[in-house]
Amino acid sequence: MPLPVPVLPEGVDPAWLPVEALRPLGVRRTLIRGSGPLVDTVHGEVADACGRFGGKVVRGEEGAARGAPDGARYDLLLEVSAAEGLGAEGFAFGRDGGTTTVTASGPHGLLYGLFHVVRLGAAAFAGPVAREEHRPATALRMLDHWDNVSVHPVMGQVERGYAGGSLFWRDGRARGEAERVRAYGRLLAAVGINAVAVNNVNVREAETRLLTERLGEVAGLAEALRPYGIRTHLSVNFAAPMLLDGLPTADPLDTGVRAWWAGAVRRVYAAIPDFGGFVVKADSEGEPGPFAYGRSHADGANMLAAALAPYGGTVHWRAFVYDHRQDWRDRGTDRARAAHDHFAPLDGEFAGNAVLQVKHGPMDFQVREPVSPVLGAMPRTRLAVEVQATQEYTGQQRHVCWLGPMWSEVLRFRTDGAAGPSVAESARGGIVAVSNVGDDPFWTGHPLAQANLHTFGRLAWRPDADPCDVLDEWIGLTFPGAPARLADGLRAVLRGSWRTYEKYTAPLGVGFMVQPGHHYGPGVDGYEYSRWGTYHFADRDGVGVDRSAATGTGYAAQYAKAWAEVYESVDSCPDELLLFFHHVPYGHVLHSGKTVIQHIYDTHFEGVEEAEEARRVWAGLGDLVEPARHARVAERYEEQVRCAREWRDQVNSYFLRKSGVPDGQGRLIH
Ligand code: BDP
């Protein structure tokens, strides 16, 4: 019996997953071979898409005859064949003799194969296509929701969430809207995502209880996500045994603590047999962790890994560990160094089912950071790379900032220099994004931020894909049949939007300069005299952080030789990262030929002009975009342009006053 295809609440954008798109293609006869719940899902999808105009779906067990009894051909053949060596999630696609065929070794692959057909649309049913094999680059493609169960007085329902409330929780309890969660699972599966962590990494009182007495609420979410091959993960508090059951310690080597976790995990798997595992933020920004007991992070992670191992679960241990109480008068410690300092010496000590989850840059999701040196320093550890789709520091979904090019650069970066593995190849533990989705009718708070979610999923599947091709794919699926003017307009406003954002915000990799707390809008000195370790060191002579080994914090030496040399020297350091690695005088001449100060002035003027131009382009698309979507984006552009001007004016005035160097083009008045 095919499962029903999820029904979206009224007004919710179906986003880019119109399996219904198969309907107008006239797929009249489909054969599905295989069994199990995911094959039922595929069956339900196809039956719903094709059934309403009289198309017929025939279901057979694996190995059943391929030919139709009446001798007529099938338009579409979707089959599981264990004999194929395509891995759990891979599939083969081809077209021959008028039949489009998807063959998978397992049901997950069949689901992804179906969505492949849907993405191709009419092209999947035209001409012969020689067999192609598709497999995900990594087995774990995950979204971490920073969703709070109870509304946090400062962070709200979703920490750093800019898409309304949580899809999962409202006012302290599960929303219980299974159909919507199921629809979300469908949306994620359509872009290849297969794991979701359903609560915030900062695990507070109510969230801690999800592990025990509130487990049923998590099981409800897992049930709704399961039909689309999504495994559910939970963020847990390292001190849970103390908080929940009054144990005197959370020491990872204490037998009582280990027994407590083993019992907790046993109960989780009794309720959720395909549970994915835990996400842990420990010894970070006030969260408890193994340091309190003089234990290493490998001790902490391995304790949880041991509890999860009998059930096939994984612990995702975050490498975001740093001292957030630095004294600004004695800024000897460099926050950028922290993850490498803490974790690189532990390479080889983590259990096989422990994944070290590393933010893509050494600081915190800034618009421009170098790739974290941890990603090249731990070959004997399963690493996952974490990016941030929610755009905390990149416009909070009020600004258009398509992050595809940034993520692509990170995933392709070769940590050893030209040879050696790419970050994507090193990230054997998976590719993870902090989710940008909430209960907003558009899923993401900015309708064009859907492109980030789509791009994340597709790059996690295939990290070497050209992000611009992925963007085009999203455009084609989200605006089916878009006339050239619309597609061109969307490309124009999205493709360069990350660089535009970079131009009007913190320059040359220096980072931060945001308003403290909420992190939106300019605050050039916002964090300069606080304890968070995020400084730009601007004075009357120059700006930037000396992270060289020769005279600075030594961070540059955390890279493999090839990169350490590039970053160590002012001459070879790439312009866009110059102020991340070096403190230079304002008159320093960049490779571009401009001085640093003139670069700052010019890019800030250009960035605003580009934002204004994007707003103009979008305004001109009003006749081609559905009104609600057009209006929402237009409204966000008003804010983007206002905020970009504010950034320009504050950053330029600040540097004009600090440096006393006039703008070469005479636009700024001292
Ligand atoms: C920072 C966020 C904070 C998160 C933290 C993390 O500001 O809300 O808790 O990252 O990743 O970017 O744990």
UniProtKB/TrEMBL annotation:
Span of domain Glycosyl hydrolase family 67 catalytic: 132-443
What molecular functions are annotated in GO for this chain? alpha-glucuronidase activity; xylan alpha-1,2-glucuronosidase activity
Highest taxon listed in the record's lineage: Bacteria
Any one GO BP annotation for this protein: xylan catabolic process
Q: Which residues form the Glycosyl hydrolase family 67 C-terminal domain?
A: 444-667
- Tell me the first and last residues of the signal peptide: none
Gene Ontology CC entries for this record: extracellular region
Stated name of the protein: Xylan alpha-1,2-glucuronidase
- Species the sequence originates in: Streptomyces phaeofaciens
